[in-house]
Design goal:
single chain, alpha+beta, six-stranded mixed β-sheet, 25 helices, elongated, disordered C terminus
Length: about 725
């Protein structure tokens, strides 16, 4: 990125038009003689030479404002505000000001010697240092603050000098001045988030995330051994030539471990009494200026072992034993949620199962800590979501308790008999309901099976349609019943509903729009759901478990011209009150399981699908194409000569008075059984136009053979 990113140069601090330039051009401008005179004048004025203080300050401001500058941290186009940012290359600016004069040269040399320093030079005042360093990995708008904090914290620790937090602005400008000894290192090492002192390899840096550890404050005495060990593990020792580096690293870690500033300063002054006290106090002030880093590490996180009296972490086996003595766990394979019930003196609470919540997890963790187990919530949750909890399927458990079917009582037939169809076709309803119900059990037990049909009850309000569906599930399984009222379009949440319920009822099905009905049909045949749950990090792959049913008040609700084989609609006049009926759920589900195990066919074959489509026509919304064809055309009879027409010709004939298209007409002609002949110009259909007399006497949906051509037409 160093070779491709061109920082934006501005003619002055007032300028707003960026001009891209190379790092080499900036380096030439810094080390050349172009700004030597202005830089010397500025520093002379800053030293108070030849002018009163007020005049000198005003002249310094004018010089600085008119000097060219560059923005090193972002790619700008068309301006220099945040809205003009087009990218974050990964170069971060550090502004080190207020360096004591007696350690300035030492600090500058330390910055230049550090392998991360890409560009470093004296500022216009001659009393500060400007540094550019690069981050490893992609830098974005979201993680720029963390990248800035990482680089600036590193140089604060390196120099022991407080950083200028105003540079945190990504569009901050760096004034170009004269420094013949400026450093330019094209192959500088990139900074890593994990390269902060005190961090183990691979350990996540809480400082980058802005997290702070809560709890009692850490004392300097308690932190001393760990702090000095970490610094010395980095190869830095309290010896000649590295005194300041050693002290600054120690105080930096004291800040991260949450030791109060006054206590850490007093500790350092006492421990390093042979070093200049003023420098120690200045170093402490600089390190503790990094307020975002205070208390972002715990001593326990960097303890090498438990031989120093510190309590060791609880093992997995210890946590398992503790959980087993407090509660029973199981993983619900329908809801994909962990469930628990309390255990008292080794005896589990009867029927006390409840979903695991954050409150329960936190309470369990608190109990562990009170009992002396050193465990953290992350490892506790990892254990809870492992195979530690046995799998449990609610329907399978119910079937095991129900026992086998008696082989005699037709529980499914008795349940179906509670519904009274309007056409008195109870046998057809019995068969359709039986297939649908067995399909519901099959879909719940086998992840490779989906119930492809939707049972629909249409009738007046208050006739127990919804209640009938609710009572199809026994009380212990009724929590796996869900209803969807057509108050909005089907959403991703509805997809997850069909992975964690046994039965989903779509109420007011007759008020659904065509697009929603088509979406529902597509959901019916979906085998798996591949979506990311709300607040989840990853997509999940879950089987479609639920069977669908629906209720409505209006007879005509089907809108698909291509066929409605997914629907099992029935108009009902009455339903026996299911709330007062004595439904034998054990026998009902045992019979369904018996039928399933004995190869009962709950799916439909091709010829049965055609019968379904025919039966479902009375539930279809008006079809203008079908009605017009029935009214104006019929099939040829015997040796009668017909006429060949195209679907487009029929559309042209009636399209002026009603909305039609050739696809709708073609589908209607095919459903009505007209002969189609394929030609190179398209499909043509053999029809006979009805006479006026035929049109006056035809009944809706009547068979063509009931209306032979009149004698005048033969």
């Amino acid at each position: 990125m160093e070779n491709t990113f061109r920082p934006s140069r501005f003619l002055s601090l007032h300028a707003t038009t960026p001009s891209p330039c190379t790092w080499e051009e900036i380096m030439q401008e810094l080390t050349g003689e172009r700004h030597a005179a202005v830089t010397a004048l500025f520093r002379a004025l800053a030293a108070g030479e030849g002018q009163d203080a007020e005049t000198s300050k005003r002249q310094q401001s004018q010089i600085k404002q008119n000097q060219p500058a560059f923005v090193p941290s972002v790619h700008l186009e068309g301006g220099r505000s945040s809205k003009h940012i087009k990218g974050y290359p990964g170069s971060i600016m550090v502004d080190i000001d207020g360096i004591p004069e007696d350690i300035f040269d030492e600090t500058l040399e330390r910055v230049r010697a550090d392998p991360h320093s890409f560009l470093a030079y004296k500022t216009l005042s001659g009393r500060g240092i400007r540094v550019i360093a690069w981050m490893e990995g992609e830098v974005t708008e979201e993680n720029f603050p963390a990248a800035w904090q990482t680089v600036n914290a590193y140089y604060a620790r390196l120099t022991g000098i407080a950083i200028d937090r105003q540079c945190k602005n990504a569009t901050r400008m760096s004034v170009i001045c004269h420094d013949p000894d400026a450093l330019y290192r094209p192959d500088a090492e990139r900074m890593k988030f994990a390269s902060l002192p005190g961090a183990k390899a691979g350990q996540k840096q809480d400082i980058a995330a802005g997290k702070k550890h809560r709890g009692r404050k850490t004392s300097a005495a308690r932190a001393e051994n760990t702090v000095r060990r970490l610094v010395e593990e980095e190869g830095v020792h309290y010896a000649a030539g590295s005194h300041n580096d050693y002290i600054s690293r120690c105080l930096y870690l004291m800040n991260r471990f949450g030791v109060p500033e006054a206590e850490a300063e007093a500790w350092a002054v006492e421990l390093f009494a042979d070093y200049d006290t003023a420098s120690v106090r200045s170093t402490a002030k600089s390190c503790y200026a990094l307020t975002a880093e205070h208390a972002t590490m715990k001593l326990s996180d960097v303890s090498p072992h438990n031989g120093n009296g510190r309590q060791r972490k609880a093992t997995v086996e210890e946590m398992e034993r503790f959980i087993g003595g407090s509660m029973q766990l199981r993983m619900n394979q329908l809801t994909h949620q962990l469930e628990h019930r309390p255990v008292t003196e080794g005896i589990p609470a009867p029927d006390g199962w409840a979903p695991m919540t954050d409150t329960v997890e936190n309470s369990l963790w608190c109990s562990m800590r009170r009992d002396g187990l050193e465990a953290d919530l992350f490892h506790l949750r990892t254990l809870l979501l492992s195979d530690f909890a046995p799998r449990y399927h609610p329907l399978e458990e119910f079937l095991e308790k129900a026992g086998p079917w008696d082989g005699v009582t037709d529980h499914i037939g008795n349940l179906a008999a509670m519904v009274h169809p309007a056409d008195s076709d109870t046998d057809r309803f019995d068969l359709c309901f039986r297939r649908w119900f067995v399909g519901m059990v099959a879909a719940a037990l086998d992840p490779k099976v989906v119930n492809h049909v939707i049972l629909v009850l249409i009738g007046r309000q208050g006739c127990f349609k919804t209640s009938f569906f609710q009572n199809l599930l026994p009380p212990v399984l009724r929590r796996y019943y869900a209803s969807k009222t057509n108050s909005q379009r089907l959403t991703k949440d509805d997809l997850f509903t069909m992975t964690e319920n046994l039965l989903v009822n779509f109420e007011e099905i007759d008020s659904m729009q065509r697009s929603e009905l088509n979406q529902l049909k597509a959901m019916t045949t979906t085998l798996y759901v591949n979506e990311r749950p709300a607040y989840g990090r990853n997509k999940v792959h879950l089987p479609h478990v639920a069977s669908f049913c629906a209720t409505g008040n209006n007879l005509q609700f089907l809108t698909d011209d291509t066929g409605n084989r997914r629907w099992l609609p029935f108009e009902v006049t009455a339903i026996d009150n299911p709330w007062t009926a004595h439904i034998d759920y054990e026998g009902l589900y045992a019979q369904a399981k018996h039928l399933l195990d004995n190869d009962f066919r709950y799916w439909y074959r091709d010829h049965e699908i055609e019968e379904l489509n025919l039966a479902n026509r009375r539930f279809e919304t008006p079809n203008p194409a079908r009605e017009l064809i029935l009214m104006y055309y019929r099939h040829p009879v015997d040796y009668e000569k017909g006429t060949y027409v195209t679907a487009s010709q029929i559309v042209t004939r009636f399209g002026g008075s009603i909305r039609l298209n050739a696809v709708q007409v073609g589908i209607a002609l095919k459903e009505l059984g007209y002969t189609c002949t394929r030609t190179r110009h398209g499909n043509i259909w053999l029809v006979v136009e009805r006479t006026t007399g035929e049109m006056k006497s035809i009944l809706p949906e009547a068979d063509d053979t009931d209306f032979p051509p009149s004698s005048g037409d033969r």
